[in-house]
Automatic annotation (TrEMBL):
Membrane topology: Multi-pass membrane protein
Example of a GO cellular component annotation carried by this entry: membrane
Protein name as it appears in the record: SLC22A4_5
Domain Major facilitator superfamily (MFS) profile: 33-248
Native source species: Mytilus edulis
Length: 248
């Protein structure tokens, strides 16, 4: 009986809130501003999530083969090969020649190629932790503060990650980026849905912002190959949507 009363109470509260939304104008100016903020702001989480797919892609590279004293320039072998050419087993890869990428900075190929995949694993670990605690934090401080705090930290961590001095520092910031992503993904849907009239809710949430911003990131990555600039670009496109705090 107590459970039934609770369900009836929750239903009446839900109906009351829906009626209040309709009386306040339904899908009005505030809702459209909120939609613009949320849909536009998805560019940050989309680019952040796809960062390692583009910024962490292994570029063309090749070895210069030699020994302790000499590099043999006339030995040719296909690119992306960690083992010496046939008949030159006594030689070693003494220098790797890259296109520009994070692999250039930290030599993330051959016996160190596991590090690149680990970045994504670490980021997903942060996302898991963020997702587990975001709901409780949002209940305490509110959906709006939790949403904009996550956006701010996505901007900050992407910006700082661009200036990582070693791969360990970069990995730490990928975890923090994942943490902020977990907060964002746990909060944004509820934040916008709570202010949408029931009859428009599913339609608004089905707007395909993710594939649009993902396609845009692919185009930007085609033009900007440097992982540092991709992080800075992600931070830059996040910044304007933080100002929507004052109108939603």
């Amino acid at each position: 009986m107590s459970t039934l009363r609770t369900i009836n109470h929750m239903s009446s509260v839900s109906d009351y809130l829906e009626n209040t939304l309709e009386e306040c104008g339904g899908l009005g100016r505030f809702q459209w501003l909120l939609i613009a903020s949320i849909i536009g702001g998805k560019i940050s989480i989309t680019w952040t999530t796809l960062m390692m797919s583009f910024g962490g892609a292994i570029p063309d590279w090749s070895c210069q083969w030699g020994n302790d004293t000499t590099i043999f320039q006339n030995i040719t072998i296909e690119s992306k090969t960690c083992h010496p050419p046939q008949n030159y087993s006594d030689l070693a890869c003494v220098r790797k020649v890259y296109d520009d990428s994070m692999h250039t900075v930290w030599n993330l190929v051959c016996d160190r190629d596991w590090i690149t995949q680990t970045f994504t694993t670490i980021q997903m670990g942060g996302l898991l932790v963020g997702g587990l605690i975001a709901g409780q934090v949002a209940d305490i401080i509110g959906r709006k503060p939790a949403y904009f705090i996550s956006m701010f930290f996505l901007l900050l961590f992407n910006l700082v990650a661009a200036f990582s001095s070693n791969w360990q520092m970069f990995a730490a910031f990928r975890f923090l980026i994942g943490l902020a992503s977990g907060f964002y993904l746990s909060v944004f849907f509820v934040f916008v849905a709570e202010f949408m009239p029931r009859k428009y809710r599913s339609m608004i949430m089905a707007i395909p912002a993710w594939p649009i911003w993902a396609a845009a990131f692919g185009g930007v990555s085609y033009l900007i190959h440097d992982w540092k600039y991709l992080h800075i670009a992600t931070a830059a496109v996040t910044a304007p949507f933080l100002f929507s705090w004052w109108y939603v």
